[in-house]
Design goal:
2 domains, two-stranded antiparallel sheet, mainly alpha, elongated, 117 residues, 56% helix, 4 helices
Length: 117
């Protein structure tokens, strides 16, 4: 079956959450927000995070119509399903780099003023 996810895979995307069929926006939004919470904040692998997101959606849905299978089961994790690894730069690197740039700018402006005087 050809889907848009295949195009992303050919382009080099290592992993994705995709669906082969149309899914309702409201349910997919809730599932995806739950997925992000499970994957990033709780550090679960993508497949476990997606499963937990679907379970949380089913538990919290108030409308029986919204709990129908075709509204939550069509998404799947494709490709690399590893846990989230933060690539955040430590704050001290950002502060140090910002301070260095400010000092560099200060000396550049000061030198430029002394050359024009």
């Amino acid at each position: 079956m050809r889907t848009l996810s295949r195009a992303f895979a050919y382009a080099g995307c290592p992993s994705m959450i995709a669906s082969s069929w149309n899914i309702p926006d409201q349910s997919s939004q809730k599932i995806f927000l739950n997925f992000c919470n499970e994957f990033i904040n709780n550090n679960h692998p993508k497949d476990v995070a997606l499963q937990n997101a679907k379970l949380k959606y089913i538990e919290n849905v108030k409308d029986e119509n919204a709990a129908l299978v075709h509204k939550w089961t069509l998404t799947t994790a494709i490709g690399n399903i590893d846990k989230y690894e933060s690539t955040k730069t430590p704050y001290w690197v950002l502060i140090g780099g910002g301070t260095f740039l400010l000092l560099l700018l200060f000396f550049f402006v000061r030198r430029r003023k002394s050359l024009h005087s």
